[in-house]
Amino acid sequence: MAKVLILGGGFGGVVAAKRLAEQLGDEHQITLVSRSRYFVFYPALVRLAFGKCEQEDVSFDLRHAMLDRRVNFIEAEVARIDPYKRKVTIAHGEVEGKLPYDYMIFALGRRLATERISGFYEHAHHLLNVDKAIRFGKAIANFHDGRVVIGQCAGARLPIPIYETAFALAKRLEENNERERVRITIVSPDAIGSEFGDSDVGIKLQKALDRHQIEFLPDFPIEKVTEHAAMSENGRAINFDLLMLMPPFRGASAALYQGITSDAYINVDWSMRVIGVGGMYAVGDCVNFPGPKMGHMALRQADVAAANLAAEIGGHEPVAHYEHEMRLVIEGGGDSIYLHKDIWTDEPSNVRQGRFWSWAKRAQEKYWETATFNIKKFQV
Ligand SMILES: Cc1cc2nc3c(=O)[nH]c(=O)nc-3n(C[C@H](O)[C@H](O)[C@H](O)COP(=O)(O)OP(=O)(O)OC[C@H]3O[C@@H](n4cnc5c(N)ncnc54)[C@H](O)[C@@H]3O)c2cc1C
């Protein structure tokens, strides 16, 4: 019998648990540990902020989903891991405990390094959890006059919600005949579209922003925020009445100081095995791959890790190979942009634009939620 521990109840952890429950015999024990019993569907948080969906549409109870699949679920904080002794230290309230394992899939996502931006906590909104998205939504609903700055900090690795927020805000103001009273500016350390590694996306984005009179200010790596101004590392400043920022990302703290990370992200190979230790795999935002951090990457990595872990338990060589690609839709109504790009090769990317992609993104999300959670929502 093998004891398999999965850390993290997000995209990577949930799909890894689902796949392992399908692939491993009942004699093996699968346990998932996460700090909250609720899975959060992050890509819907912009829609939540703009009142286009409800809280129960973006959160799902993991215990029900896991019980359906014979996975033990422990609601606890992962304090640290010891991949050499194969033990994980967890904390629940005052109580600390150690969980031994034979195999582990690490899927604790990313940490928000808000401490790197002075004043962030006091003066900036963000969209990276349900409560903050709702809070930002309230601020936006009450905003009728002035300047909104939407900013990507250096190291944020998640450009989609930046553009989606700007488009959603412009659309709402247009519908309310308030567009002329509000100035919208996106600030970024990079040139437009460069986060996606494709100049065609940059051109399409710029045209779409122009159509909605949204300004884009490149070369603005935010360093500090005060009540009404954001300052960049290179000495520039911009005033705002409302600020929403994507903070810098870092890898999950629990994996640090074990010799398995570079710049806090976990080093894995194409089979999703952690380099330098046995019996450990890592998937999702926590891994050290280039490009943006995205949910569809976590899902594919979880598929690969689960297949290879099941093979390893059965005494076989890895059977699945991860290919690092970007597949995304930036939602903006008729201006929605679709991009498919292979990050590890120089293959030309596929870029499309139109309302269809907005619809396709929602349809794909609905399909995924239904398949993964059997739509057992919790009641708020
Ligand atoms: C606003 C927004 C919009 C997005 N839009 C898109 C999009 O359109 N398309 C796309 O592909 N991606 C999108 N993403 C990115 C996508 O959501 C992430 O890439 C994805 O969630 C990563 O999955 P993960 O499993 O690695 O991490 P997460 O989903 O972050 O899961 C990590 C899990 O680990 C738990 N955890 C963390 N630390 C601990 C700890 N110490 N102890 C116990 N539990 C812990 C967390 O509670 C969570 O359950 C978006 C993200 C946001 C925030």
What would your notes on this structure say?
The chain is of the alpha/beta class. It is built from nine helices and 24 strands. It has helices spanning about 10-25, 45-50, 60-65, 120-125, 130-140, 160-175, 200-210, 295-315, 355-375, and strands at about 5, 30-35, 40, 60, 70-75, 75-80, 85-90, 95-100, 105, 110, 145-150, 180-185, 215, 220-225, 230, 235-240, 240-245, 250, 260, 265, 280, 325-330, 335-340, 350-355. A five-stranded parallel sheet has the order 5-2-1-9-21. A hairpin with a 6-residue loop joins strand 22 and strand 23. It is globular. The model is unreliable at about 375-380 (pLDDT under 50). The structure holds flavin-adenine dinucleotide (FAD). Flavin-adenine dinucleotide binds near residues 9, 286 and 328.
Number of helices: 9
Distance between the termini: 39 Å
Order of strands, main sheet, comes to 5-2-1-9-21
Instruction: Provide the helix percentage.
Output: 25-40%
What structural class do the secondary elements suggest? alpha/beta
Strand content: 25-35%
Question: What does the average pLDDT come to?
Answer: 92
Uncertain spans: 375-380
Secondary structure: number of strands: 24
Major β-sheet annotation: 5 strands, parallel
Q: Which descriptor suits the 3D outline?
A: globular
**Rg (C-alpha, Å):** 21 Å
Ligands bound to this protein structure: flavin-adenine dinucleotide
